[in-house]
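Cast an eye over this sequence plus tokens and walk me through the fold:

***
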Amino acid sequence: MHAEVGDKVVIHGRTVGTADRGGTVVEARGTEGPYVVRFDDGHESLVYPGPDLTVVRSTA
């Protein structure tokens, strides 16, 4: 899974009742991750891509 700085990511909830989380890639540390993501609530975290992560390409 490839993402670049500025791309949006969505991490889908893995259990019933768990909400999806969205954020923006602010740093890519490799061609296939991990990525530093700033989530919509302002929290930043190192994210390793997995089957529950979807990348939405930036149009800019």
Remarks:
- The CA atoms of residues 25 and 37 lie 4 Å apart.
- The beta strands are 8-11, 21-28, 35-39, 44-47, 53-56.
